[in-house]
Amino acid sequence: MTRLALATAVFAIAPWLAAASAPCEPSTPALQAFAKRADGYNNPADGGGSMLTIVNNTYPAGQGEPINVILSGTSDAQVLVDSLDDGGFQNYMLSTFLAHECLGVHFGDTQSANLGDGDGNVTQVAVLRWDYGDPYVGSCKETFNGGLHLRYWQQNGTKAFFLAVSVEMDEAKGHDIVPDGYNLGRDELVGNVTQTSVESRNVTTASTFSGQTSYGNYTYQTDVTYVAGLLQNSSIGINHNITVEEDGYAAIDGLVAVLQVSIVSRPAGDTGATAASSSSSGAISLLPPAVAIVTLAAVAALW
Ligand SMILES: *[C@@H]1O[C@H](CO)[C@@H](O)[C@H](O)[C@H]1NC(C)=O
Ligand SMILES: *[C@@H]1O[C@H](CO)[C@@H](O)[C@H](O)[C@H]1NC(C)=O
Ligand SMILES: *[C@@H]1O[C@H](CO)[C@@H](O)[C@H](O)[C@H]1NC(C)=O
Ligand SMILES: *[C@@H]1O[C@H](CO)[C@@H](O)[C@H](O)[C@H]1NC(C)=O
Ligand SMILES: *[C@@H]1O[C@H](CO)[C@@H](O)[C@H](O)[C@H]1NC(C)=O
Ligand SMILES: *[C@@H]1O[C@H](CO)[C@@H](O)[C@H](O)[C@H]1NC(C)=O
Ligand SMILES: *[C@@H]1O[C@H](CO)[C@@H](O)[C@H](O)[C@H]1NC(C)=O
Ligand SMILES: *[C@@H]1O[C@H](CO)[C@@H](O)[C@H](O)[C@H]1NC(C)=O
To answer: What is the CA radius of gyration of the chain?
Structure first.
């Protein structure tokens, strides 16, 4: 196929992708409505869990990656549903250019986390990647070029989302984490959801950031604070710690960004009175694998 034909193939499927965004996967079981703390999440360590992810085959063994952003369970109920629809979490993430992985094909390792909620070690729900402003194939570009990405989980009971965010190197470098890539990833995410520029080395527990983003006619207000004491302030046991440490600073600064998200405007017809009940895992993940792989080859040819 010529380059033009490949490009045509990509754009030919674009309407199909859009059409596939209607929810057609079974709903996940509703999360139990446990009493939640005033701050909208529970410290995983209180329930035998950890703010470090579980990664197989690290050297030395047993290293994890920091869960450095929490979307608080006190946020708008619609954002606390893992859905593309009704202003859900995935729509919120698209408002800040983070999309499901390139055509639903997962690259790289899978990680688990124990959020101390009684569910034990749970595989990541999904990986989201910076989409360069293009929700259809932009995350493919991130897959090859590296950049901002995250894995996420949802805590049973509080419904808070726990995000392990980092900036990684490109495909050729095996998707290692860039120097200071955990703090930078957290703060690029905070910068994006609040439309401000966040200087990682200056962030303290006194820092706050607020701002708005929109997608699909939903506008979200995000208020961010930084919390100490959930994560360690050191490099020990942090995956890629040798290369992530920089200028004498530890691989992570120990701060977790806590996002409080409210919906300040909705499309006509959504009154916000009834929270979304369906859950879909994203249009692109519905592609049959063979189609996805062929399409991926086409996308790769574009740059
Ligand atoms: C890690 O390895 C174990 C044993 O091979 C496997 O059961 C588990 O699914 C792996 N976890 C992840 C997150 O890949
Ligand atoms: C959960 O992960 C931890 C850390 O890797 C491991 O020690 C433990 O055996 C795992 N638990 C189960 C039930 O697999
Ligand atoms: C949440 O925890 C409850 C109580 O342990 C359990 O019954 C339920 O299956 C869990 N839900 C999910 C989605 O893990
Ligand atoms: C948003 O994220 C992108 C991708 O990592 C980054 O290049 C950009 O600087 C971020 N924007 C802000 C305001 O932090
Ligand atoms: C970060 O802190 C340094 C030293 O205090 C200061 O010069 C700089 O302006 C700060 N940067 C931002 C973006 O606040
Ligand atoms: C957003 O609002 C515009 C103008 O009101 C409308 O034309 C459009 O269909 C809406 N889009 C969505 C995704 O609701
Ligand atoms: C982390 O530790 C370093 C050195 O021990 C210290 O300078 C820094 O203030 C600590 N950061 C936080 C967020 O506690
Ligand atoms: C990285 O973490 C390991 C434990 O997993 C520790 O032995 C090592 O000293 C750490 N390296 C650095 C550079 O902090």
So the answer is: 19
